[in-house]
Amino acid sequence: MKYIAISAVIIATFLLTGCTIRLPDTEVVTRIEIGEISTSDQEKIDAIMSALSGARWRSWRAMNDTPLTPNQLAISPYGMFEGEEVLMARLFLYEENGREYIWNSYVGIYRISQENIDKIRQIYAEMRSLIEEN
C-alpha cells in the first residue's frame, strides 16, 4: 500500500509539473526573434514569453528539428551566458487541423490558446510594420 501511495504522488507530481511548457525565465531573455524579425524591447519580450507560458502539453511526438508543416513561425529567445549571447530555446508556432500548437523540438508539442496566439501575432505584426516603415 505504501508503494502505491508513493507511486501516486510521483505520477501526480509529473502530471502537474509536466503539463506546461518549460521556458527560460523572462528576466534572462535579452532578445527574441519571431520569424526573421528580432527585438530587444523588454515589454514585447515579456508579452511574448507570457503568451507562450500558457501552452499546455499535448504530445511527445516532436521528434524532428521542426514541425512537418509548411506554415510555421519560429520563436527564438536569446540570453547572455558568460558574456556571450546564446539561443535559449527554439520553438515553432504552427497550425494543424484548425488548432494552433507550439513545437518544442525533441521535447514535446503544446496546445496554445487562441487568445495567446493572437497576442503573439499582434506583436509580430507590430514588429513587421516598424521594419517596413524604416
The CATH class designation is Mainly Beta
Uncertain runs:
none
How many domain modules?
1
Task: Estimate the helix proportion, in percent.
Answer: 25-40%
Count all strands and give the number.
Answer: 8
Q: Which fold name is given in CATH as the topology?
A: Immunoglobulin-like
Count of DSSP-assigned helices: 3
Order of helices and strands: HEEHEEEEEEH
Broad structural category: alpha+beta
What portion of residues belong to β-strands? 25-35%
On the 0-100 scale, what is the average pLDDT?
Answer: 83
Reported CATH architecture: Sandwich
| Alpha-carbon Rg, integer | 17 Å
- Between the first and last Cα atoms, what is the distance in angstroms? 68 Å
Biggest sheet overview: 8 strands, antiparallel
The shape, in one word, is globular
Walkthrough of the structure:
With 134 residues, the protein is of the alpha+beta class. It has a single domain (2-133), classed as Immunoglobulin-like (Sandwich). Helices cover 36% and strands 32% of the residues. Strands 1, 2, 3, 4, 5, 6, 7 and 8 form an 8-stranded antiparallel sheet that branches. Strand 7 (99-104) and strand 8 (108-111) form a beta hairpin. Helix 2 (42-53) packs antiparallel against helix 3 (114-133). The termini are far apart. The relative contact order is 0.19. The model has no long low-confidence stretch (mean pLDDT 83).
Question: Can you lay out the helices and strands and say which pair or pack?
Answer:
Elements: H1 2-17, E1 29-34, E2 37-39, H2 42-53, E3 56-59, E4 72-81, E5 84-87, E6 91-96, E7 99-104, E8 108-111, H3 114-133
Antiparallel strand pairs: 1-2, 1-4, 3-8, 4-5, 4-6, 6-7, 7-8
Helix pairs in contact: 2-3
